[in-house]
Write a structure and sequence with these properties.
single chain; about 425 residues; alpha/beta; Aspartate Aminotransferase, domain 1; Aspartate Aminotransferase, domain 2; 2 domains; about 35% helix; about 10% strand; globular; Kynureninase
Length: about 425
């Protein structure tokens, strides 16, 4: 099959960029001025230019100048103060319920384990999770089930779809302890109905933990308004915290005194510096902190939150929808003739911030694209995933990326025909 003639007017992306009220913010990010096409912002966001200065200032003034006094001057409370900012700006969460620290995996373990331990005395010995949830979520659930003698109930979903209310409701019983789901599916970008699903779980007395890794900073979230019990999310995707930046956790205030986190560390003690012989949990969200917080790992996140706060999450979402819609339209016009299928929801209300495209040769296509500085990522089965970080991605960048994808598909088709 030959490469089809381009069918998108050359001015389309340029016009969209001119009309984009957020276009100027792209210049805030390192590397945006280069020719590299970055379509993987939902795996690792670009760094902000201001972060280099803020990190240097921290090293010279706070760390180098104040040394250990920094703990009394803000570092000790940073997991909670920064957590409140994440809650206010991106999660729809009132103060005192969100904190920053540990990895996503560790935070998932702590909160799922705390939830099932609280529910077990009532005869609730089952965890519900979907078959296409992110591997870490599934692995953590399986490990906790082995530790505590629980049963895992699996909700079957397709790799191009996601969790819906009615099929989930059929699995929920009086034995369900906790339901573990992702708001945005990492493969398909399916955007789950948090409000209705949470209500369905509550109807049978179960708790719900939402993984927000692929939604925080891209999709408006209303944890308090929707009655969410628990949530976990990473900060290196749409929140641009950098590689290995710490996760955040959320526990609704109504559950905090009931849940006992399983990794008891000194920073979660009611009086950490008493160095006492026994563990007494702190009040509020601090009880879910374990060890010394990664202060350096929070600096870039703080900068990005400030930028999102100035723009507003609704504006971020509007740009995200426009970017993903362009990706789908270009796929239909340029890539469908090669047999490419859109493996993400076409309805923007059901779609998160990325789009997955499916074709049998996508693994080879992604490898070839990386060699030419066009960076999407690959997810089985046969999926090229386009991650569009709204504040750092331009419409022209999307168009350039799709031109390269079409070229590589043409080469793959030609090599197959020749062979």
């Amino acid at each position: 099959m030959s490469n089809p003639d381009p069918s998108i007017p050359a001015s389309t992306a340029a016009d969209l960029d001119r009309q984009d009220a957020l276009a100027a913010l792209r210049e805030e990010f390192v590397g945006a001025e280069t020719s590299l096409v970055y379509l993987d912002g939902n795996s690792l966001g670009r760094p902000l230019r201001r972060t280099a200065a803020s990190m240097a200032r921290f090293v010279e003034q706070e760390w180098g100048g104040r040394l250990i006094r920094g703990w009394d001057e803000g570092w000790f409370d940073l997991p909670l103060t920064l957590g409140d900012e994440i809650g206010r700006i991106t999660l729809g969460a009132a103060p005192g319920q969100t904190w920053v620290g540990d990895s996503t995996t560790v935070t998932l373990y702590k909160l799922i384990r705390a939830a099932v331990d609280a529910q077990l005395p009532d005869g609730r010995d089952e965890i519900v999770i979907d078959t296409d949830n992110f591997p870490t979520d599934r692995y953590v659930v399986e490990g906790i089930a082995r530790e505590r003698g629980l049963t895992v109930r699996w909700l079957d979903v397709t790799t191009h779809g996601g969790v819906e209310v009615e099929p989930l409701r059929e699995l929920l019983t009086e034995r369900t302890a906790v339901v573990v789901l992702s708001q945005v599916a990492y493969r398909s970008a399916w955007l789950a109905d948090v409000e209705r699903i949470t209500a369905a779980a509550h109807d049978v007395g179960a708790l719900v933990l939402w993984d927000l890794c692929h939604s925080a900073g891209s999709v408006p979230i209303e944890l308090d308004a929707h009655g969410v019990d628990l949530a976990v999310g990473c900060t290196y995707k749409y929140l641009n915290g950098g590689p290995g930046s710490p996760a955040f956790g959320y526990v609704a205030a109504r559950h905090q005194s009931r849940l006992a986190q399983p990794i008891q560390g000194w920073m979660g003690h009611a009086d950490p510096f008493a160095m006492g012989p026994g563990y007494t949990p702190a009040e509020g969200a601090r009880r879910f902190i374990s060890g010394t917080p990664p202060v350096l790992g929070m600096l870039a996140l703080r900068d990005m939150l400030s930028l999102v706060d100035g723009v507003g999450i609704d504006a971020v979402r509007a740009k995200s929808v426009a970017l993903t819609q362009l990706a789908i339209e270009v796929t239909d016009e340029r890539l469908a003739p090669f047999g490419v299928e859109v493996a993400s929801p076409r309805d923007a209300d059901r779609r998160g911030g990325h789009v997955t495209l499916r074709h049998p040769r996508m693994r080879e296509v992604v490898a070839a694209l990386w060699r030419r500085d066009v960076i999407p990522d690959y997810r089985d089965p046969h999926g090229l995933r386009i991650g569009l970080s709204p504040l750092s991605t331009s419409f022209a960048e999307v168009e350039a990326g799709f031109e390269a994808i079409a070229e590589e598909l043409g080469r793959q088709a030609s090599s197959t025909t020749t062979a």
